Amino acid sequence: MTDDGAEGREHPGRNTRGAVVFDLDGTLLDSDAALVAPFVALGVPEEEITFGHPVEMECRRLGITVDEYVDAYDVSEAMPFDGVADMLAALGEWSVCSNKARASAVAELDRLGWSPRVAWFADDFGGDAKSLRPVVDALGVGGSNVLFVGDTLHDQRCAEEVGARFAWAGWNPRTRAGSPSGVVLDRPVDVLRLLHDDLLDDDLLDPDRFGDRRRR
């Protein structure tokens, strides 16, 4: 994976008429346990830990430093949800917008061999909550031509702020247990079906991998 720093986060390649952007933790990665473990190791009661916030904000709220948290985070623990790797392979390109610390996120993406076109992480937002706006701008597409897939209410609000379509990662049991309103996808492959049937254009799909699904 290319490390998209503050001076340029867009990977080389064509602009498309549409784009797919994913949250990372709880959407692509089954990482709840991995995210909680450093806090617990640093003495934070597990019941006080919440999800969906910038790492800087959560660390500050719980009384630890980001450096302490990142040092305690095991970048080898979190694995993709079942079906995510195949879904990403079938997409021609995809991007990430996440509240995760960049160092941890880049290490995980490298380990998994994933190369998002654009990738923004907590450090890139200057400690503020993530926003889709800079990601959409870097992609050079209109917000209405973006599908954002996430697992928290904050993710949903990020999509609404730029006029993007939003879909819940319903393959995450924590997300589904919250009975979210709107489009809830049961499996990662449903992202491909949504793109093909309802959104954007088929140019976002890799024809060699999406194959027969186009003709269904």
Provide the helix percentage: 25-40%
Q: Give the CATH architecture of the largest domain.
A: 3-Layer(aba) Sandwich
CATH superfamily of the largest domain, by name, is: HAD superfamily/HAD-like
Distance from first to last alpha carbon: 33 Å
Number of helices: 10
Question: What CATH first level of the largest domain would be assigned?
Answer: Alpha Beta
Overall tally of structural domains: 2
**Strand count, sense and closure of the main sheet?**
6 strands, parallel
Task: Note down, in words, how this protein is organized.
The protein has two domains: 19-30 and 78-215, Rossmann fold (3-Layer(aba) Sandwich), CATH 3.40.50; 32-72, no CATH class. 37% of the residues lie in helices and 12% in strands. It contains ten helices and eight strands. Strands 5-4-1-6-7-8 form a six-stranded parallel beta sheet, sandwiched between helices. A two-stranded antiparallel sheet has the order 2-3. Strand 6 (146-150), helix 7 (153-162) and strand 7 form a beta-alpha-beta unit. It starts with 18 loop residues before the first strand and ends in a 6-residue tail after the last helix.
